[in-house]
Specification:
The protein starts with a strand and ends in a 17-residue tail after the last strand. The chain is flat. The protein has three domains: 343 residues, P-loop containing nucleotide triphosphate hydrolases (Rossmann fold); 115 residues, no CATH class; 112 residues. 50% of the residues lie in helices and 14% in strands. Helix 6 packs antiparallel against helix 10, helix 7 runs antiparallel to helix 10 and helix 11 packs across helix 12. A hairpin with a 3-residue loop joins strand 1 and strand 2.
């Protein structure tokens, strides 16, 4: 999954903070309580996660925006800290076509976009043309419902939060999360292929349909039994008797029509109705044309507002980023300006006086941004409303045309009839003919019930055959997991290599890693001996558990990159050296980060890393990666915290 972060923007009460995330490796380090961990938490918040509401965020942050690319789309995700559920997403493709929607952060009862997007997870999958993945809610219940695997499930293997870094990937404390994490691993490691998922989904569909058909059969049989229609022959006898009465009624009616002639005819009312209907049709056609033009105009205006929104965000970001930059040469002509006489009251570049209007984040930026969002939402609502009116007008036009055809036919028929004394009598015959005709139709439908029961029985038997055939294919597909077995073996070897590279105590070349193919529990076998096996849960120290998780994530991403597996290509680790003393374990510190940098330069050169830690281990000078780091400390204007002006807990 191709996802790349660009910028994180915090709209605060007193400033607009812009955090550059565009480098391949971004390392945020510094003092405690400077907002480092909040960076990854806010990224996670924009992607649909929950937010830890620290005093600084509760008191100062109004909204947060994440600019990123998802597949071929440039995306801006905006979320207000006071709005828990909705995320405003603005998406622009490579052809500069855009759309903007508000999506829930989690499940929703009805789609909000394209009929398949229910929440932010579905939108991320949709932008990358990935089908929604469904797995059985229980592997033990044969008729278990299918549940979705969301993007949040994949995030478990891309984001290690500091508060949960020494917890297991498999979320064993929560049965639902435990099952989903294992299903995601199976899918990523091709131990549960998309074909297998589709086969299981098809089996589930056939089973549900067969059970519905069986219930329908039982209902139809009970209905026929209540009215004494147990056989098709009994129903046919009623149809024959009713048809004889129907033919007799038609014959009587024909005799009246042949005997009498009319002096006047009843067609004027129909003509007036048709004329009125033609006028209504013309009005509807004109209103449809007007609505279509209005929708086109509002679509165009919406596109202009979306473009303005991006331009506004870029301009404000540039002012915040370039503030305080020291120039040694003119950025326009290259002239050396280092030796010019400068004062504290003038601009270092153009020497213009700096007063109370010194460039800073405008207090109106929040209002402008909110106004743009509101205008886009208003246009979306207006477009939706006009489309509803358009749909309604089209349906009315279809109905009017159908009425006109019906009235034309009726007029043609009425012109053949003459209004006279026998009109009431012939209408009485018409009613009798219609009543008998409808009764015959009803009996015909009733006659089809036994046939429908037989058809449903045949269909249910056919569905059962299809189920059994698919189950055989599922069994064969599971036997084909040769590729998945190779990938898991590669993961075992890569994980052992990571543990050795980092230098986790007690790990030797002669040890083995074993991943259980059913539970996906990962075991370390000292000297390959099963009885000495240990895993995350009995690793001992918290620092060892932290390294166990971090190394497993790096190994998983390395294997996914090598085999082009469906795993998001970013890694967020908040404090990988949690529970580890740098002074005592300097080798482990340096080994871990050198290993991470070597992966970024080699097999994970297409993966984006965002690392948070108190201590900073820079890459060596010969490491060629796009690297960015930022030191953060409270009350330090040269190295400000996340919210530059904030002082507090």
């Amino acid at each position: 999954m191709n996802i790349h972060f660009q910028t994180l923007i915090l709209q605060c009460k007193g400033s607009k903070e812009v955090i550059d995330l565009s480098a391949q490796v971004s390392f945020f380090h510094g003092k405690v309580s400077s907002g480092k961990s909040s960076i990854t938490r806010l990224i996670n918040y924009c992607l649909g996660g929950n937010l830890e509401r620290t005093p600084a965020i509760v008191k100062e942050v109004i909204s947060v925006a994440l600019e990123l690319t998802i597949g071929e789309y440039h995306v801006l995700l905006e979320r207000f800290t006071q709005s828990e559920s909705m995320i405003n997403a603005t998406c622009v493709d490579i052809e500069n076509k855009s759309f903007s929607i508000s999506v829930p952060s989690s499940g929703e009862q009805k789609p909000v976009w394209e009929g398949t997007v229910y929440n932010i997870s579905d939108l991320i999958f949709h932008l990358q043309n990935i089908n929604i993945i469904r797995v059985p809610a229980s592997r033990h219940a044969e008729t278990s419902n299918l549940v979705r695997l969301s993007f949040r499930n994949f995030m478990w293997f891309c984001y290690l939060d500091q508060s949960k870094l020494d917890n297991s990937f498999y979320r064993l404390e929560d049965p639902t999360k435990s099952r989903n994490s294992k299903e995601v691993l199976k899918y990523i490691l091709q131990y549960s292929t998309q074909k297998l998922i589709e086969l299981e989904e098809q089996v589930h569909k056939y089973k549900r349909q067969r059970l519905n058909d069986t219930a329908t059969i039982e209902g139809l049989r009970a209905f026929l039994k209540n009215f004494g229609f147990s056989t098709e022959e009994q129903i046919q006898l009623l149809i024959d008797n009713t048809r004889r009465k129907y033919l007799k009624a038609k014959q009587d009616k024909q005799q009246l029509e042949d005997t009498y002639k009319a002096d006047t005819h009843e067609s004027d009312a129909l003509r007036l109705s048709i004329k009125d209907l033609i006028q209504r049709i013309t009005i509807r056609e004109n209103s449809i044309n007007d609505l279509e033009e209005t929708i086109l105009e509002q679509d165009s205006l919406k596109s202009e507002l979306v473009a303005s929104k991006f331009k506004f965000s870029k301009s404000k970001s540039a002012a915040s980023i370039l503030q305080g930059v020291k120039f040694y040469n003119c950025p326009c002509c290259g002239t050396d300006i280092e030796n010019r006489v400068e004062t504290a009251e003038t601009c270092v570049l153009c020497l213009s006086p700096i007063g109370s209007d010194k460039p800073m984040v405008s207090a109106q930026s929040e209002l402008i941004q909110a106004d743009l969002n509101d205008r886009i939402k208003e246009l979306d609502n207006s477009i939706d409303l006009h489309k509803k009116w358009l749909s309604k007008a089209r349906k009315e036009l279809i109905s009017f045309n159908a009425q006109r055809r019906e009235l034309d036919s009726k007029l043609e028929f009425e012109l053949k009839q003459y209004e006279s004394v026998f009109l009431s009598r012939i209408r009485s015959h018409d009613q009798e003919v219609a009543k008998l005709q409808e009764r015959i139709k009803g009996f015909d439908r009733l006659k089809r019930m036994p046939k429908e029961i037989s058809r449903l029985e045949i269909n249910a038997a056919d569905l059962l055959k299809k189920e059994n055939l698919l189950k055989s294919q599922i069994s064969i597909e599971k036997q084909k997991f040769v590729k998945g077995e190779e990938i898991i073996k590669d993961l075992e070897a890569t994980f052992l290599k990571a543990l050795l590279e980092v230098g986790i105590p007690g790990i030797k070349d002669s040890d083995k890693i074993y991943i259980n193919r059913k539970t996906f529990e990962t075991l370390v076998l000292p000297e390959g001996e099963d009885y000495l096996a240990w895993n995350f849960y009995n690793a001992g120290s918290g620092g060892k558990k932290t390294l166990f998780n971090s190394c497993f994530m790096l190994a998983l991403h390395e294997v996914a990159s090598r085999h082009e597996l469906p795993l998001p290509n970013f890694i967020l680790i908040d404090t990988p050296m949690k529970n580890i003393d740098k002074e005592v374990n300097q080798d482990i510190f340096r080994n871990f980060f050198n290993y991470l940098y070597s992966l970024a330069m080699g097999p994970l050169d297409n993966t984006q890393f965002i690392i948070i830690d108190n201590n900073f281990i820079p890459p060596s000078t010969d490491t060629k990666i796009n690297f960015y780091h930022r030191y953060m400390a409270n009350e330090d204007s040269a190295n400000p915290p996340l919210i530059s002006y904030y002082v507090g807990p």
